[in-house]
Design brief:
Oligomer: single chain
Largest sheet: 10 strands, mixed
Strand content: 25-35%
Shape: globular
Number of domains: 2
Number of helices: 3
Number of strands: 17
Radius of gyration: 23 Å
Structural class: mainly beta
Length: 289
Amino acid sequence: MKTLDANVVTQIDATGKKPVLLFTLYLTGVTLHYCAYKTNIAFPHGVQSFTAKAISFGGISQSLEGQIGRVTVNFDNVSKDMAAYVNSYEFEGRMLLIQRVFLNADNNAPAAATEYNEIFYGVMEQPADIGRMWLKVTATEGKPLNRKVLNDLYEKKCRHTAGVGQCNQDGLFDLSTLTANGTADSGSTTTLVDDALTQADDYWNYGKISVTKGGITYIRKVKDFDAATDTITFDIALPVAVDNTTTYIVYKGCPKTWDACQASSAYGPSADNKANFGGHIHIGIWRES
């Protein structure tokens, strides 16, 4: 039996410590943990389990300094599990975290929760490409490790989502008071009717609705609310029709404009919410002298 050279042993050990990417998707009502690896791993070791999954990058947009501003990740969807999450949970406006850890010789992640490199932390868009093989998820506004850019995007429109982050800091956009729930009277695959919805016309516009029928919950955006008929119209049709066995929770939205945030309009906040407006009212023009 021949003893391996020390340099070879060192290289073998280094292979065992290869980097692995961890993906955490913070959805509405559930958090998904995946790893781009052949087996499940736990990080910190023995605490949070990350499920092994085929994952690839569809595209990465970086600045000249290497900061990631936009990333597209493809998650394996052969078993249709990712498509089911899209159908039941909200992706848009939720966070995507990508971390890198280094496995030891026993294929275990580090025991300390601080032993990782944060690659990307950004806001997800609504998945637009749901295929038989892959689910494509795109996220933007990542947090760079070496900040040399503005932390706030300079734009006129409010970038916050109602009930998430700064939008409800002072309670004026508190979703606990800007929701309604009940059992539908009737409806269709694109509408829900409930006489208990007595709010003003367009009150639920820009919001979202959680519809449950037969024990399955579907998440949709509110395309329109008609006060005359107490009807909510969905942005995308359901795979089932709404009837009097269907329950729902509807959340008020906002068009994210300065006018809507400072006034108590039908589709705006319940009170003055200027303090939580995440945009910039005026965008000036810079001129070189």
